[in-house]
């Protein structure tokens, strides 16, 4: 029998990131996938700023940015011409080190993650399926079907279902997956093309006919087309070819197709599982929640699930925390998933709605409103904060406490940057740590030293005040860089009580 700390089912971005984070933290993982090879086609394209911030902990952010494509602007078309342009080059400037929209297709993304995982000595076990599993007294016993057809019993302490919308893990747990399916059929095509819409920027057609978005890729002249299939064509979606859909919208935007690399159709769902955890089994990514592609949130949300769960599993498995720390995974992630599905559902319904009123909103009002929104810094900033996931927070959750400055327990630590540097350098290590902006007490310094808890004390600067950080208090940061405690005092007993109340015993583990 093979035994691991965590058995991960599914080797998409969510499963691979979970495996990477756990491996970095010294946890033994086994990752299986029923496919024979990594995907060569994908719909997920955007890597959001919050994901890139967290990727610094795995030294992945630079590789994604260098090999991806930074989108300069989004252009909106009506009746054969661009009517509005939304600059994106520095739309989040001052809020994050990654103040832009990054395109990095999922298939390339997966290859990067697989390469990094292999550096830890972990290989994805391909053509290997989970058939069933049961919880035992001290773990999970899983029955696997190997590539040669043989069966194997795998023992693990925990099981992570990262196996997509048709999750075997979710079905085995008998967890409901309420929601629905949109009526529209979508297509995605990877093409080489030319024309005004192939200038390296994002282009979206708002016309009353077919919806179409042209996403730029790093390679010159290459783009990803995502569009709707309407009228009688939708009834034959399983047999559709690219030639069947390449009519009005593509012609309207004057996209000259030179080569189609691949093409597929799909339906969009909006669902959230009733539970993200049952005993020793967890659901992550599309196994837990699926939603429309609006805003490029899906893959990034799954990666967020993986990072949230990874440090908690590592703490429990290393003996640094009691198992009740794992109780925080579901409430923290399910609340965001439900809010995200509701939000993207409203936007998606507006973008794809049919009828005279919907056409009026898209073709007449949107071209007027978009330039006005782009002209105001506050509206641009609101849009970026929302889409980039930097406003995602765990306020009011069990692991979050206090307020200092404008920062609450559960918030992402604000990024503060000026000519003297930024406050994110120490966040590259996925460990508990304390940040102080201004002065702190001798007691705090001595306590952190005694308990091997990293302490970063920054001399007070205007950049910290501008970021909303409080002066002379402290922020206890979780390994995933969210604020656990926001406190105005410099009393280490506040930290001591927090760890005791949450049964966290080991504060610092060198990964």
Automatic annotation (TrEMBL):
Pfam families: FAD_binding_3 (PF01494). The keyword Metal-binding does not apply. Residues 4-343 form the FAD-binding domain. GO terms for molecular function: monooxygenase activity. Gene3D superfamilies: 3.30.70.2450, FAD/NAD(P)-binding domain. Its cofactor is FAD. Keywords: FAD, Flavoprotein, Monooxygenase, Oxidoreductase. InterPro entries: FAD-bd, FAD/NAD-bd_sf, RIFMO-like. This is FAD-dependent monooxygenase. It comes from Pseudomonas gregormendelii.
């Amino acid at each position: 029998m093979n035994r691991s700390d965590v058995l991960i089912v599914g080797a998409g971005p969510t499963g691979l990131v979970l495996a990477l984070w756990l491996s970095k933290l010294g946890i033994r993982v086994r990752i299986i996938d029923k496919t024979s090879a990594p995907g060569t086609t994908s719909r997920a394209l955007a890597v959001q700023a919050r994901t890139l911030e967290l990727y610094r902990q795995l030294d992945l952010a630079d590789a994604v940015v260098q090999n991806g494509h930074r989108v300069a602007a989004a252009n909106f078309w009506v009746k054969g011409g661009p009517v509005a342009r939304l600059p994106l080059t520095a739309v989040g400037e001052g809020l994050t080190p990654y103040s832009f929209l990054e395109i990095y297709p999922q298939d390339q993304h997966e290859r990067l993650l697989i390469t990094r995982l292999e550096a830890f000595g972990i290989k994805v076990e391909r053509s290997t399926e989970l058939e069933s599993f049961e919880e035992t007294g001290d773990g999970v016993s899983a029955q696997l079907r190997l590539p040669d057809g043989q069966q194997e019993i795998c023992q693990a302490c925990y099981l992570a279902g990262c196996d997509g919308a048709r999750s075997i893990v979710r079905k085995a747990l008998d967890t409901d997956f309420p929601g629905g399916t949109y009526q529209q059929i979508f297509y995605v095509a990877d093409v080489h093309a030319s024309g005004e819409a192939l200038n390296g920027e994002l282009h979206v057609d708002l016309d009353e006919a077919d919806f179409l978005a042209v996403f730029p890729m790093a390679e010159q002249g290459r783009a990803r087309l995502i569009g709707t299939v309407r009228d009688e064509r939708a009834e034959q979606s399983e047999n559709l070819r690219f030639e069947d859909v390449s009519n009005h919208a593509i012609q309207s935007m004057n996209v000259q197709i030179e080569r189609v690399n691949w093409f597929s159709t799909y339906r969009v769902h909006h669902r959230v599982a009733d539970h993200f955890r049952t005993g020793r089994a967890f659901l992550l990514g599309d196994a837990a929640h699926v939603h429309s592609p609006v805003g490029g949130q899906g893959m990034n949300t799954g990666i967020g699930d993986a990072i949230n769960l990874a440090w908690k599993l590592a703490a429990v498995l290393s003996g640094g925390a009691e198992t009740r720390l794992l109780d925080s995974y579901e409430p923290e992630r399910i609340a965001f998933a439900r809010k995200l599905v509701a939000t993207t559902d409203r936007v998606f319904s507006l973008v794809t709605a049919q009828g005279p009123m919907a056409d009026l909103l898209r073709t007449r009002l949107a071209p007027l409103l978009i330039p006005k929104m782009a002209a105001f810094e506050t509206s641009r900033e609101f849009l970026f904060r929302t889409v980039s996931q930097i406003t995602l927070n765990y306020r009011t959750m069990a692991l979050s406490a206090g307020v200092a400055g404008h920062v609450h327990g559960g918030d992402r630590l604000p990024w503060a940057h000026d000519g003297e540097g930024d406050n994110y350098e120490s966040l590259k290590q996925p460990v508990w740590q304390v940040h102080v902006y201004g002065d702190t007490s001798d007691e705090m310094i001595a306590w952190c030293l005694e308990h091997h808890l990293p302490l970063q004390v920054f001399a007070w600067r205007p950049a910290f005040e501008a970021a909303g950080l409080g002066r002379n208090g402290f922020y206890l940061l979780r390994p995933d860089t969210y604020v656990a405690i926001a406190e105005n005092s410099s009393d280490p007993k506040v930290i001591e009580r927090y760890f005791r109340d949450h049964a966290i015993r080991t504060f610092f583990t060198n990964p």
